[in-house]
Amino acid sequence: MTETATAPTAPLRARAEIDLGALRANVRALRALAPDAALMAVVKSDAYGHGAVPCARAAVQAGAAWLGTATPEEALALRAAGLPGRVMCWLWTPGGPWQEAIEADIDVSVSGMWALDEVTDAARRAGRHARVQLKADTGLGRNGCQPGEDWAELVGAALRAEADGLIRITGLWSHFACADEPGHPSIALQLTRFREMLAYAEGRGVRPEVRHIANSPATLTLPEAHFDLVRTGIALYGISPSPEIGAPADFGLRPAMTLSAAVALVKHVPGGHGVSYGHHYVTPGETTLGLVPVGYADGIPRHASGTGPVLVGGKWRTVAGRVAMDQFVVDLGGDEPAAGTEAVLFGPGDRGEPTAEDWAQAAGTIAYEIVTRIGTRVPRVYVNEEQSG
């Protein structure tokens, strides 16, 4: 888990400021976009790098009815922190902590017979039923049960386990492959297949509490996919799933994370001076260089060497040369900000700073990766922790 603090107790080398007020507002905006569905706040991977427990609490305060994690360990950590209500986890491997999840009243996802066998065995040991959600592979090709004979076998076995009092089938669900690409033909095909697999299961007697397929992009753009529950991950943190869908502000969302560091050194150098490993950047003339004390060990993508944007002294700068493990350099063009001046790598963008999407473009990746990869050496500092109004 990342180090957390409500306020810095001393000047920090770097900080990821998490605006919980923005996160709560994002939850409310997303609920308004899917008014007939409950909302699951997905807080896997330490809430996409934002801090799972503080973000989960804020999301529940704002009306999230469910919390979602990938691994059972993540779900159990939420329970250990005292978070109540519905919690679901979906990434299981053989021998996982099924009994602990059952005893913690966590919904577990089952995609195949091996998992159903393990969860029913654990339910016998626990002496109570397991809350099980059956996942359908409607076309993503990752986890989930294939349609046809495999789905029929899984549904039939799950119904028998339910009749024996070992499980309660609480959900039927799936996941989109291309919902972040508006108009992609797979979207309609997956929706059709999901409805068919729902109809089969419900025709055999499954009575789920929730049916769900909508991830963040589907929540934003596909109301026909909302069903009973929408699962919002990246949008919860105020980041658009893709530029093709729109900017965060188009949906009333605001990025919750601002990543900054204190400039460690400013110095004059002559023209022709090599900068960082490999001398991929050489100063074109006499200039000043600023040292920003974060690097790829902190999650700054090395692929953004020479392209990553940083706001220093009110101006956009660009990473000069390679991003190193602990630091990188920006060419200040003769400006002389004092050591300790704030360098803002990304934030909401309303102060002129770059955004996570800008870094994603610079690194040839997606904004999900930019925020999720920020490492444990960077303290998370929470602001607007108390809910107003």
Which descriptors would you attach to this protein?
389 residues, alpha/beta, TIM Barrel, Lyase, Ornithine Decarboxylase, Chain A, domain 1, 2 domains, ten-stranded mixed β-sheet, eight-stranded parallel β-sheet, 11 helices
Q: How would you name the oligomeric state of the polypeptide chains in this document?
A: single chain
Structural class: alpha/beta
Largest sheet: 10 strands, mixed
Uncertain regions: pLDDT < 50 for 5+ in a row? none
CATH class descriptor name of the largest domain: Alpha Beta
Rounded to the nearest angstrom, the distance between the terminal CA atoms is 30 Å
The averaged pLDDT comes out at 96
Number of helices: 11
Enumerate the strands of the largest sheet in spatial order, edge to edge or round the barrel.
1-20-2-11-19-16-17-18-15-12
The amount of helix comes to: 25-40%
Shape: elongated
CATH architecture of the largest domain: Alpha-Beta Barrel
- Secondary structure tally: strands: 20
CATH fold label of the largest domain: TIM Barrel
Q: At the fourth CATH level, what is the homologous superfamily of the largest domain?
A: Alanine racemase
Roughly what fraction of the amino acids lie in strands? Answer: 15-25%
